[in-house]
Amino acid sequence: MNFNPKMLQIYLVGGTQDTHHDSYEFLAKVEEAMQAGITAFQYREKDSSTMTADARLVMARRLVEMGNRYSIPVLIDDDVQMALRVGADGVHVGQDDEKIEQVIKEAADKLIIGYSCNTAAEVEKANQLSAIDYLGCGPVFETTSKVDADPVLGLTKLKKLNKLSTHPLVAIGGLSLENIPEVLKTGVAGLSMISLVLNSKNITETIEKIKTLVK
Length: 215
Ligand code: 3NM
Fold this sequence. Notes:
By secondary structure, the chain is α/β, with parallel strands linked by helices. The chain is built from nine helices and eight strands. An eight-stranded parallel β-barrel has the order 1-2-3-4-5-6-7-8, surrounded by six helices. Helix 6 (154-164) links the parallel strand 6 and strand 7 (169-172). Helix 1 (23-36) packs parallel to helix 2 (53-70) and helix 1 packs parallel to helix 9 (203-214). It is globular, with a radius of gyration of 16 Å. The structure holds ligand 3NM. Residues 13, 116, 136, 138-139, 143, 145-146, 149-150, 172-175, 193-196 line the site of ligand 3NM. Ligand 3NM is lined by residues 13, 116, 136, 138-139, 143, 145-146, 149-150, 172-175, 193-196.
């Protein structure tokens, strides 16, 4: 699937660590979210996960197959080789992950490339790299979903980074139904979240509410 900034509008991120290491619950929740209308999904299985490399590969294949059924792009966090192997639509890399130049070499023209940035210097560097499709910026607010999260950005810094960036930007970290309207006012292209959706008692209803805010 070719990149389109609209894909960033409701961008769900998650791995089995976000559903108490229960693979069935994880797949069921992602499927409900896809049915309800998320616009992209990123498979992010963290080191805290108990899954073997083979199990991650099987999970990634299932998610790509699910994404194909719902015509929703599936990206893989921090693993270009896995993304290429399972036929994913893209890869997302952080500042500490594989070096961005190396990722571009391996993935340009094959995968959508997302890159985490949370300082002006990082955004300026990303502006020089035209193979990057979008930037992920956060955490905008406090989050409990990422153990090694950078300091909280807040809305003022987010707005500045968005203005500075030549790439479309997706906001991540601590997003809630209450703060999404303020986040959208910064002009970002999209919203990315884990717990707002995966911890929701009613995923379909939550996504319906996000959709009305994004419109
Ligand atoms: N990346 P929640 S914050 C995966 O700042 C991730 O780059 C972040 O989870 C960053 O929506 C984060 O539950 C966790 O706050 C987002």
